[in-house]
Design a protein that fits this description.
The protein is α+β, with helices and mostly antiparallel strands. The protein contains nine helices and four strands.
Length: 221
Amino acid sequence: MFRTTPALLWILAAQCFAACGAGQAKTTDGTQDVADAEKAAPADAKTAEDYGRMRMELAASEGYDAYAIQIGERLRIDQAMKRWKSGDVVSTLKELIGVLDFYPTSIEAHRRLADMFEIVMGQAKDPEARAAASNSEKYYRAIADGLVQSILDSGDGKTPESAYQVINISEEYMVLLYLGLKRTGQALVQKDGKTFDRLEVQDAQGAISEIHFDVSLFFRR
Protein backbone atom coordinates (compact mmCIF):
# COMPACT_ATOMS: atom_id res chain seq x y z
CA MET A 1 0.00 0.00 0.00
CA PHE A 2 1.32 3.45 -0.89
CA ARG A 3 1.90 6.12 1.72
CA THR A 4 0.86 9.73 1.29
CA THR A 5 1.84 12.91 3.08
CA PRO A 6 0.30 16.39 2.92
CA ALA A 7 3.29 17.59 0.92
CA LEU A 8 2.90 14.78 -1.60
CA LEU A 9 -0.79 15.50 -2.02
CA TRP A 10 -0.12 19.16 -2.70
CA ILE A 11 2.52 18.27 -5.29
CA LEU A 12 0.22 15.75 -6.97
CA ALA A 13 -2.64 18.22 -7.23
CA ALA A 14 -0.35 20.95 -8.51
CA GLN A 15 1.20 18.69 -11.15
CA CYS A 16 -2.20 17.51 -12.34
CA PHE A 17 -3.61 20.97 -12.85
CA ALA A 18 -0.39 22.24 -14.37
CA ALA A 19 -0.45 19.38 -16.86
CA CYS A 20 -3.99 20.28 -17.88
CA GLY A 21 -3.25 24.00 -18.17
CA ALA A 22 -5.62 25.08 -15.41
CA GLY A 23 -4.15 28.50 -14.63
CA GLN A 24 -0.73 30.04 -15.06
CA ALA A 25 0.71 30.65 -11.60
CA LYS A 26 3.91 28.71 -10.88
CA THR A 27 5.72 27.91 -7.69
CA THR A 28 9.47 28.17 -7.37
CA ASP A 29 9.89 24.44 -8.10
CA GLY A 30 8.03 24.76 -11.43
CA THR A 31 4.74 23.14 -10.40
CA GLN A 32 1.50 25.07 -10.45
CA ASP A 33 0.36 26.74 -7.29
CA VAL A 34 -2.34 24.57 -5.74
CA ALA A 35 -4.33 27.58 -4.59
CA ASP A 36 -4.61 28.62 -8.22
CA ALA A 37 -5.55 25.06 -9.17
CA GLU A 38 -8.35 25.00 -6.63
CA LYS A 39 -9.80 28.15 -8.19
CA ALA A 40 -9.45 26.69 -11.67
CA ALA A 41 -11.36 23.46 -11.00
CA PRO A 42 -14.89 24.92 -10.77
CA ALA A 43 -14.18 27.20 -13.74
CA ASP A 44 -13.90 24.24 -16.12
CA ALA A 45 -17.55 24.60 -17.06
CA LYS A 46 -17.47 22.80 -20.40
CA THR A 47 -20.63 21.21 -21.71
CA ALA A 48 -21.08 17.81 -23.34
CA GLU A 49 -21.29 19.70 -26.64
CA ASP A 50 -17.87 21.24 -25.95
CA TYR A 51 -16.38 17.83 -25.26
CA GLY A 52 -17.98 16.41 -28.38
CA ARG A 53 -16.41 19.17 -30.43
CA MET A 54 -13.02 18.48 -28.84
CA ARG A 55 -13.30 14.80 -29.75
CA MET A 56 -14.25 15.55 -33.36
CA GLU A 57 -11.45 18.10 -33.71
CA LEU A 58 -8.94 15.55 -32.47
CA ALA A 59 -10.23 12.93 -34.90
CA ALA A 60 -10.02 15.44 -37.76
CA SER A 61 -6.50 16.57 -36.88
CA GLU A 62 -3.60 15.81 -39.18
CA GLY A 63 -1.93 12.50 -38.40
CA TYR A 64 -4.74 11.20 -36.19
CA ASP A 65 -4.52 7.41 -36.05
CA ALA A 66 -7.31 5.80 -34.04
CA TYR A 67 -5.52 2.49 -33.76
CA ALA A 68 -2.15 3.93 -32.74
CA ILE A 69 -3.80 6.11 -30.10
CA GLN A 70 -5.75 3.14 -28.74
CA ILE A 71 -2.61 1.02 -28.46
CA GLY A 72 -0.63 3.85 -26.87
CA GLU A 73 -3.41 4.55 -24.39
CA ARG A 74 -3.62 0.89 -23.38
CA LEU A 75 0.13 0.53 -22.90
CA ARG A 76 0.48 3.68 -20.77
CA ILE A 77 -2.58 2.93 -18.63
CA ASP A 78 -1.47 -0.65 -18.04
CA GLN A 79 1.92 0.69 -16.99
CA ALA A 80 0.22 3.24 -14.71
CA MET A 81 -1.74 0.48 -12.98
CA LYS A 82 1.46 -1.50 -12.39
CA ARG A 83 3.00 1.59 -10.79
CA TRP A 84 -0.12 2.08 -8.68
CA LYS A 85 -0.06 -1.50 -7.39
CA SER A 86 3.59 -1.09 -6.43
CA GLY A 87 2.70 1.99 -4.37
CA ASP A 88 4.37 4.51 -6.67
CA VAL A 89 1.72 7.24 -6.79
CA VAL A 90 3.84 9.88 -8.53
CA SER A 91 4.83 7.53 -11.37
CA THR A 92 1.20 6.50 -11.72
CA LEU A 93 0.28 10.15 -12.14
CA LYS A 94 3.01 10.71 -14.72
CA GLU A 95 1.90 7.73 -16.79
CA LEU A 96 -1.74 8.83 -16.81
CA ILE A 97 -0.85 12.43 -17.61
CA GLY A 98 1.39 11.01 -20.34
CA VAL A 99 -1.70 9.54 -21.98
CA LEU A 100 -3.30 12.99 -22.10
CA ASP A 101 -0.23 14.37 -23.86
CA PHE A 102 -1.09 12.45 -27.05
CA TYR A 103 -4.75 11.64 -26.37
CA PRO A 104 -6.27 14.61 -24.50
CA THR A 105 -9.83 13.24 -24.69
CA SER A 106 -9.02 9.84 -23.20
CA ILE A 107 -12.02 8.93 -21.08
CA GLU A 108 -10.25 6.13 -19.26
CA ALA A 109 -7.21 8.23 -18.33
CA HIS A 110 -9.43 10.96 -16.87
CA ARG A 111 -11.56 8.42 -15.04
CA ARG A 112 -8.53 6.67 -13.54
CA LEU A 113 -7.04 9.99 -12.45
CA ALA A 114 -10.32 10.78 -10.71
CA ASP A 115 -10.38 7.35 -9.06
CA MET A 116 -6.76 7.78 -7.96
CA PHE A 117 -7.43 11.12 -6.29
CA GLU A 118 -10.58 9.76 -4.66
CA ILE A 119 -8.48 7.08 -2.95
CA VAL A 120 -5.72 9.54 -2.07
CA MET A 121 -8.33 11.93 -0.68
CA GLY A 122 -9.63 9.21 1.62
CA GLN A 123 -6.15 8.74 3.08
CA ALA A 124 -5.36 12.40 3.53
CA LYS A 125 -5.30 13.62 7.15
CA ASP A 126 -4.54 17.28 6.54
CA PRO A 127 -7.76 19.21 5.64
CA GLU A 128 -6.08 21.38 3.01
CA ALA A 129 -4.40 18.39 1.37
CA ARG A 130 -7.73 16.56 1.38
CA ALA A 131 -9.39 19.57 -0.26
CA ALA A 132 -6.68 19.67 -2.93
CA ALA A 133 -7.16 15.99 -3.70
CA SER A 134 -10.94 16.45 -3.72
CA ASN A 135 -10.71 19.27 -6.26
CA SER A 136 -8.49 17.14 -8.47
CA GLU A 137 -10.94 14.23 -8.25
CA LYS A 138 -13.88 16.46 -9.20
CA TYR A 139 -11.93 18.05 -12.04
CA TYR A 140 -11.01 14.78 -13.76
CA ARG A 141 -14.36 13.13 -13.00
CA ALA A 142 -16.23 16.01 -14.63
CA ILE A 143 -14.13 15.70 -17.78
CA ALA A 144 -14.57 11.91 -17.99
CA ASP A 145 -18.33 12.23 -17.47
CA GLY A 146 -18.57 15.07 -19.98
CA LEU A 147 -16.71 13.10 -22.64
CA VAL A 148 -19.00 10.10 -22.18
CA GLN A 149 -22.10 12.29 -22.24
CA SER A 150 -20.97 13.81 -25.52
CA ILE A 151 -21.06 10.31 -27.04
CA LEU A 152 -24.44 9.48 -25.50
CA ASP A 153 -25.82 12.74 -26.90
CA SER A 154 -24.80 11.73 -30.45
CA GLY A 155 -27.59 9.13 -30.70
CA ASP A 156 -29.35 6.40 -28.75
CA GLY A 157 -27.40 3.43 -30.13
CA LYS A 158 -30.53 1.41 -30.92
CA THR A 159 -30.11 1.35 -34.69
CA PRO A 160 -27.41 2.18 -37.25
CA GLU A 161 -29.30 5.37 -38.06
CA SER A 162 -29.13 6.49 -34.40
CA ALA A 163 -25.74 4.97 -33.59
CA TYR A 164 -23.36 6.55 -31.09
CA GLN A 165 -20.50 8.27 -32.90
CA VAL A 166 -17.07 7.33 -31.61
CA ILE A 167 -13.54 8.21 -32.68
CA ASN A 168 -11.91 4.93 -31.59
CA ILE A 169 -12.75 1.58 -30.05
CA SER A 170 -11.66 2.73 -26.58
CA GLU A 171 -14.67 5.03 -26.51
CA GLU A 172 -16.96 2.06 -27.14
CA TYR A 173 -15.54 0.24 -24.13
CA MET A 174 -16.01 3.24 -21.89
CA VAL A 175 -19.62 3.78 -22.97
CA LEU A 176 -20.39 0.15 -22.13
CA LEU A 177 -18.73 0.60 -18.75
CA TYR A 178 -20.74 3.72 -17.94
CA LEU A 179 -23.98 2.06 -19.06
CA GLY A 180 -23.25 -1.07 -17.03
CA LEU A 181 -23.30 -3.33 -20.10
CA LYS A 182 -21.23 -6.40 -20.91
CA ARG A 183 -20.38 -7.23 -24.51
CA THR A 184 -21.46 -10.74 -25.53
CA GLY A 185 -21.14 -10.48 -29.32
CA GLN A 186 -19.94 -8.19 -32.08
CA ALA A 187 -20.37 -7.70 -35.82
CA LEU A 188 -19.19 -5.11 -38.32
CA VAL A 189 -22.06 -3.74 -40.40
CA GLN A 190 -22.01 -1.68 -43.60
CA LYS A 191 -25.01 0.52 -44.37
CA ASP A 192 -25.50 3.55 -46.61
CA GLY A 193 -21.77 3.94 -47.09
CA LYS A 194 -21.05 3.93 -43.38
CA THR A 195 -19.46 1.38 -41.05
CA PHE A 196 -20.94 0.37 -37.73
CA ASP A 197 -20.01 -1.82 -34.80
CA ARG A 198 -23.10 -3.76 -33.77
CA LEU A 199 -22.60 -5.14 -30.28
CA GLU A 200 -24.75 -7.65 -28.50
CA VAL A 201 -24.76 -6.61 -24.85
CA GLN A 202 -26.10 -7.86 -21.54
CA ASP A 203 -27.20 -5.68 -18.65
CA ALA A 204 -26.93 -6.36 -14.92
CA GLN A 205 -30.30 -8.15 -14.94
CA GLY A 206 -29.23 -10.47 -17.75
CA ALA A 207 -31.32 -8.85 -20.48
CA ILE A 208 -29.78 -9.03 -23.96
CA SER A 209 -29.98 -6.16 -26.45
CA GLU A 210 -28.03 -4.55 -29.27
CA ILE A 211 -26.10 -1.29 -29.31
CA HIS A 212 -24.65 0.39 -32.39
CA PHE A 213 -21.56 2.57 -32.78
CA ASP A 214 -20.75 4.59 -35.89
CA VAL A 215 -17.08 3.86 -36.57
CA SER A 216 -17.01 5.38 -40.06
CA LEU A 217 -14.93 8.33 -38.92
CA PHE A 218 -11.82 6.30 -38.21
CA PHE A 219 -12.52 3.41 -40.58
CA ARG A 220 -11.97 5.70 -43.53
CA ARG A 221 -8.37 6.31 -42.51
